[in-house]
Write a structure and sequence with these properties.
The structure is a homodimer. Chain A is about 45% helix and about 25% strand. Chain A is of the alpha/beta class. Chain A has a five-stranded parallel sheet with strand order 3-2-1-4-5, sandwiched between helices. In chain A, strands 6-7 form a two-stranded antiparallel ribbon.
Chain lengths: ~200, ~200
């Protein structure tokens, strides 16, 4: 069974990938890109270092634009990020019957609610899997046990989240501090390989 | 890391156990018993057939009694089952720092909400893990892939859920059809071993 994991190179989506691989799914790590910046490269490197197949999901820039419009209208990223993530899941469902992401129990965005998940599974005849059974304490410990992780301030070279292209587009549109206000600088954990035992 | 999986012998808690074992936790399957009926035996057999360590969590009959009082007062099992399950998690937390159960995404009872989970983890300094990232479609397919499963009407010899001792206690207290009304007869899946490849 081929399973697509929407993949950022972070610990959450990496752990999701590991669990599915251990359950003998044929896992493909898929990183979304809207063609604005090659922000998929960090994720591709993480995937390669872990030995997973990696693919780029080239998505229509209009979806990014619509998400950014929502974010700028709202002044906060939640709805726009959820919109983009749901669109990406829909696109992934055109090529995979099993679609996973690294959403964990205590994540707030992007996150699908129960009704959206049921509707997604039924309308596309797919299975959706995430890490909602695992909280941050467990994820952090598992990540330490499994991976070699690098913590650093997010930038275009180390992060493959939607955020990178969103920020870039906002900077282009606004040319001011809007992107930094909506997405404050933060430290992220990037998986750079298996932990040596 | 020793992890306790509250275990009924069904496919959900069996899959939870397999995932944790594959993530290299030292898994112990733990079945609750209130000393009224030896309903733990079916789960012990499933655990043995899968090669897991199995233990019985001998719990105070008063907790069962309180749960049954709630169920009889309500006329439906939800609150009483949730009460009993939460009490069992609390007791498990006295001996384990990682506690899991087979609650999946589309389960309704027993199920902890986010706030209860956070409070449980923080107050007891434990990690709680479940199958909330997996829906019934995925669980059913995984179960078929992994296990030899027997489907049969629930009875005392094939089921180790709380339900069995609850029903028995209700029968003792009421001696009528109350237990059958609250817990209608249903088919369950019992894991009887690994699927031969």
């Amino acid at each position: 069974m081929n399973a697509c994991v929407l993949y950022s190179g972070g610990k959450d989506s990496s752990i999701m990938a590991v669990i599915l691989q251990k359950l003998e799914y044929k896992v493909e790590l898929v990183t979304v890109n809207f063609g604005i910046l090659p922000s998929w490269k960090a994720a591709a490197q993480s995937a390669k270092n872990l030995g997973f197949t990696h693919k780029i999901l080239e998505a229509d820039e209009n979806i990014l634009q619509e998400g950014v419009d929502m974010i700028l209208g709202d002044g906060f990223p939640n709805n726009g990020l959820n919109y983009i993530h749901q669109q990406m899941l829909q696109i992934a469902a055109e090529n995979y019957s099993i679609i996973a992401d690294g959403t964990r129990r205590d994540d707030r965005i992007p996150k699908l609610n129960q009704d959206t998940i049921r509707s997604f599974e039924d309308s596309k005849n797919i299975e959706y899997i995430n890490l909602a059974g695992f909280g941050h304490k467990t994820i952090n410990k598992l990540s330490k046990k499994l991976f070699n992780v690098k913590k650093e301030l997010t930038n275009i070279n180390n992060n493959s989240d939607y955020e990178i292209e969103i920020r870039y587009l906002i900077d282009q549109l606004r040319g001011d501090e809007t992107a930094s206000r909506i997405f404050p600088e933060h430290v992220q954990s990037r998986v750079i390989g298996w932990r040596e035992k």
